[in-house]
Write a structure and sequence with these properties.
heterodimer; A: 179 residues; mainly beta; 5-stranded mixed beta sheet; 11 strands; 9% helix; B: 710 residues; 24 helices; 22 strands; globular
Chain lengths: 179, 710
């Protein structure tokens, strides 16, 4: 039931030409999104659905980063605000705001993001693990993705143009649930 | 991973099937015990039990539970001996059987299927029972039954014959002819007609009139009914019924049962026909009855199994969610209908849509009712388990107690049934332990020596009432008061103001126990409060009535289903919440003149009593709202045991049936809500957990009081 088809993604045929001889490398698929001016990404496999933000019901006395609950086809789902978790500035909700339904452990969480960008396919050498980068990395951060070339098709929007300096902050879904 | 899922699925299937069998077994054993006490013998019941154990053995073998298989095998052997009369049905035998079931349950409950369970003691006691072979004069000697008849009876038939004669039931002989082609159905029909009146002991083919298309049968039966009654019921067509003569009595005529013709079985044409037509196997063998009956009964039980489906309750929850979604679609459609109505040129579309929407709604309601209905199970499921507990606990306490169960068939939601067994078990153990007196004491008091615990269930509107009553000593409010003061649960001042009901309510206070001695069963002071909490969690209430010397009645009132509850919808601080109606005592306008502050807590005077208040706006930190000061507010009064609290809200929006859905794990730490619900056209609405809020608010009050003192 994934509604991801509307997101620009890569065509396998193009891939093969561009990346000959690299088929042995591990490939990561990530869904990139904007959050407070930065580009983050979550593993595509864990993202079930992208929703326009439904009406969110506040839950009194819940943790600060919990925005509230929504009903997704009859299932009560908790929505968290990643900006509050990652301590990035909050902007107002606008027409690009989306809620990603993400499998985190044994619960499906709603994750509010400023805008959904695209799916990236990253090879192992395009990913730097957080442990290797060192520094004061957030526990949700898996690593840094540095996509080398534009390998996307679809509508030609400004988001498709990859600045060589563009980096993706790769998140892992599971720790989102902790605490 | 898929394989693992499969395996656990199969195991679960096995467990639930085995559990079902065990439950049926327990019920049947209790019935068997009853019939034994009444001096009746019930061969059908014994056969059912035998078959159930046999099935269990088969299942255990299939799923690789050797210890269960061995145990079932041992029990099966004992049951077979019972069936055939090799062993007498005594209290000792019943004990062994009950013990066996208990162990089966234990094996099923233990996770480690491979572990071995020692049953040597059970085997020993079976051996002991088996040695005590029934003795006595052969009662069959009274009847004019030739050796030629007795000689062809199977062991089982002979035993049944003996049993019936021992009970003094007269024997009858029915001569009947059946057409070869229809014997199958005709025989079945005869059995059905005869069963309520008589026990059919055997069918023997008799000498026929030479017509090859007809089989003549002699049916030996035992019945407590008069010959005339039986004749009326059984004699259709060419059937002839007469009483079997007793030896040494005059005037009955030589109605000895005819032995079967030995020539018959070897007659070649018949033999051929018999193989060609399965139904005539009856005529081929002289002792087929037990076998035929077995097959018939097995086929019957197979059919009934195939008619039921076991469903994981989560699947039903899912369906319920889908129904909830459809309800939202429905309200969206009706909104569109309204919008269309305002365009005159689209009016006809609106009417059409309205009609369709109505049909949709009707079907939706039916669907919802249907799903709820599927979730319903009879309370008998848990009552049967309790009957076993009573038996065991009464023996342990050396008290003579009878359990009377009424309303077995009353249905409630499966989830509720699951959650009920522990609280009910506790209530019953309390009744056995503290309620019912020992026999000698009862005699002194002029009561019947046997104590009675009754378990009654009935439906009352949208609720189910379950009563656990005993005719024991009852509870003395004065003693409860004294105890509570000793335990510093209440002060002497408190005690003076407490009514009789308040005092009885003390038993639900944590840490309160009146039993002087602690027994295995109860009296540890944890119990009634846990019972109360568990019942509250199910949205139920618990009441106790008691009279010294006469007994105690604990009454539990529960909603029929957890899936749908009635809720009061309120608004406070700009937010909408639901409050389960089961937790609401009343709702009234907040009278600011009745407000007082006691030790920093806001209270109001309600009919002379003091009601602590909780402003939900403050508790939930709903902050500044558009709600102006000085507007009317309301108080929703909620009660938990002897304690009450008034929740201050802005608006009462009305009452609505809601489907409560659990909150996700990420909100586990948040107190005050049982879940959330869709109210249809709006955002999802939180449902308050009033007992938890009450606990929280009143507990913080105690803390504050303690702080003020220090």
């Amino acid at each position: 039931m994934s509604k991801l088809t509307s997101i620009p993604t890569m065509v396998p045929g193009v891939m093969r030409d561009a990346d000959k001889g690299r088929s042995d490398d591990i490939v990561y698929e990530y869904l990139a999104f904007k959050l407070g001016g930065e580009t983050y990404a979550l593993p595509l496999a864990g993202v079930q659905e992208i929703l326009k933000p439904p009406r969110i019901t506040r839950v009194p006395r819940a943790a600060h980063e919990i925005l509230g609950i929504v009903s997704v086809r009859g299932r009560v789902t908790t929505v968290i605000d990643l900006r509050r978790r990652l301590r990035v500035p909050e902007g107002p909700l606008d027409k690009n705001t989306r809620v990603l339904l993400v499998e985190a452990g044994d619960e499906v969480l709603g994750v509010l993001v400023d805008a959904v960008l695209q799916v990236y396919r990253l090879y192992e050498d395009e990913v730097e693990l957080a442990s290797a980068v060192g520094g004061d990395m957030n526990e949700y951060v898996y690593g840094i993705g540095r996509p080398r070339a534009v390998r996307t098709l679809g509508r030609s929007t400004s988001q498709d143009r990859n600045d060589p300096n563009d980096i993706l902050i790769l998140l892992q879904a599971e720790p989102l649930l902790r605490r | 991973m898929a394989a693992g899922d499969d395996e656990s699925g199969v195991r679960e299937e096995f467990l639930s099937e085995a559990q079902e069998i065990v439950e049926t077994l327990s019920r049947d054993l209790l019935l068997l015990e009853q019939s034994q006490k009444d001096g009746r013998s019930d061969p059908d019941l014994l056969n059912d039990i035998f078959r159930a154990v046999h099935t269990l053995k088969g299942l255990a073998g299939m799923f690789g539970l050797p210890s269960l298989q061995t145990l079932a095998h041992t029990l099966e052997n004992l049951l077979d001996d019972l069936r055939l009369g090799r062993v007498d049905l005594t209290q000792d035998t019943l004990d062994i059987l009950f013990n066996g079931i208990e162990r089966i349950q234990r094996i099923l409950a233990s996770d480690d299927s491979a572990s071995t369970h020692d049953i040597s003691d059970l085997e020993e006691s079976i051996d002991r029972v088996a040695e005590a072979v029934p003795e006595g004069r052969d009662p069959l000697a009274d009847y004019a039954l030739g050796e030629s008849v007795l000689g062809v009876l199977t062991e089982y038939e002979e035993h049944r014959l003996r049993q019936n004669v021992q009970q003094g039931l007269p024997l009858y002989r029915l001569r009947v002819s059946f057409g070869l082609s229809s014997i199958d159905t005709a025989l079945e029909e005869l059995k059905t007609r005869a069963r309520p009146l008589a026990e059919l002991i055997t069918f023997l083919p008799s000498m026929g009139g030479g017509d090859e298309e007809v089989i003549d049968l002699e049916v030996l039966l035992a019945s407590s009914h008069e010959l005339e009654v039986l004749r009326e019921a059984l004699c259709t067509g060419n059937a002839v019924l007469e009483a079997v003569a007793r030896r040494g009595r005059e005037g009955r005529g030589p109605a000895a049962l005819m032995p079967p013709s030995p020539a018959r079985a070897t007659e070649p044409t018949r033999e051929e026909r018999a193989t060609a037509e399965p139904a005539t196997t009856l005529a081929k063998s002289t002792a087929p009855t037990a076998g035929v009956e077995r097959v018939g009964a097995d086929a019957l039980s197979l059919r009934s199994v195939a008619n039921t489906v076991r469903v994981n309750i989560q699947k039903l929850d899912h369906l319920m969610n889908v129904v909830g979604e459809l309800a939202i679609v429905r309200s969206a459609v009706s909104q569109i209908t309204e919008r269309l109505r305002s365009h005159p040129e689209l009016r006809y579309l609106s009417t059409e849509l309205h009609r369709i929407a109505r049909g949709f709604e009707r079907n939706l309601t039916e669907l919802q009712d249907g799903i709820l209905d599927v979730r319903m199970v009879p309370l008998g499921q848990v009552f049967d388990k309790l009957a076993r507990v009573v038996r065991q606990a009464a023996r342990d306490a050396r008290k003579d107690i009878r359990l009377e169960v009424k309303g077995n068939e009353t249905e409630v939601d499966k989830l509720i049934v699951e959650e009920l067994s522990d609280p009910l078990m506790h209530l019953i153990r309390n009744a056995i332990d503290h309620g019912i007196e020992h026999s000698d004491r009862r005699k002194e008091l002029g009561k019947g020596t046997q104590g009675v615990i009754s378990l009654t269930a009935y439906q009352k509107g949208n609720h189910v009432v379950i009563e656990v009553a005993d005719d024991g000593a009852g509870m003395d409010p004065a003693r409860l008061k004294k105890r509570a003061i000793e335990k510093r649960i209440i002060s002497e001042d408190d005690a003076r103001e407490m009514s009789r009901d308040d005092l009885l309510g003390l038993i639900f206070v944590p840490g309160f126990s009146t039993s002087e001695q602690i027994t295995d069963l109860s009296g540890r002071g944890v119990g009634m409060d846990v019972v109360k909490t568990n019942i509250s969690k199910l949205g139920g209430v618990i009441d106790v009535r008691s009279e010294v010397g006469k007994g105690t009645v604990v009454q539990i009132t529960l909603p029929i289903t957890l899936a749908i509850i009635s809720a009061l919808v309120i608004r406070v601080g700009g937010q909408t919440y639901g409050i389960p109606l089961a937790n609401v005592q009343e709702a009234l306008l907040l009278d600011t003149r009745a407000l007082r502050t006691v030790e920093g807590r806001e209270v109001m005077t309600l009919r002379g009593g003091t009601l602590p208040l909780c402003r939900l706006r403050e508790l939930f930190r709903l902050g500044d709202t558009h709600y102006e000061q000085g507007r009317r507010q309301f108080v929703v009064v909620s009660q938990l045991g002897a304690r009450r609290i008034g929740l201050v809200v802005d608006m009462l929006l009305g009452q609505q049936d809601i489907v409560i859905k659990a909150l996700g794990k990420s909100l586990r730490g948040v107190r005050g809500f049982v879940g959330a619900t869709d109210l249809g056209d709006q955002a999802v609405t939180l449902v308050l957990d009033t007992p938890a809020i009450l606990e929280e608010v009143l507990a913080s009050e105690t803390t504050r009081r303690a702080e003020m003192l220090s």
